[in-house]
Amino acid sequence: MLKCFECIDAKKTGIFAAGVLFGTAGIKILTSKDAKKFYTKCTAAVLRAKECVMDTVADIQENAEDIYAEAQQINEDRSKEDCVCGEDFSEEETFEEVEE
């Protein structure tokens, strides 16, 4: 009967038992009231950080829209200055359709 215990590696069995023990203790620690308070505070901090980042993104987006609008206006003004043909492009041009 002692021969069946000889094939068991004590080191590996001890490591397995320690893993089970630490796993069980870890679950108890992670589900404790103190851990829940910690998770709640961390989540609140992340939500505050998200709000701050979203405010910054909104500001950047507004600035980018302003820059884009000003750039379009500059290009329109420049194209009017560069036009030497004297035509007024503000009026609509009409084209006759060709009947086939």
Which terms would index this structure?
single chain; 3 helices; mainly alpha; 100 residues
Offer a quick outline of the entry.
The chain has 100 residues and is mostly helical.
Task: Spell out the blueprint of helices and strands.
Layout (H helix, E strand, L loop, with lengths): L1 H5 L3 H21 L2 H50 L18
Distance between the termini: 105 Å
Query: Helix-strand pattern, N to C?
Result: HHH
Structural class: mainly alpha
Strand content: under 5%
Helicity, as a percent range: over 70%
What this model shows, in words?
The protein has 100 residues and is an all-alpha fold. It has 3 helices and no strands. The mean pLDDT is 81.
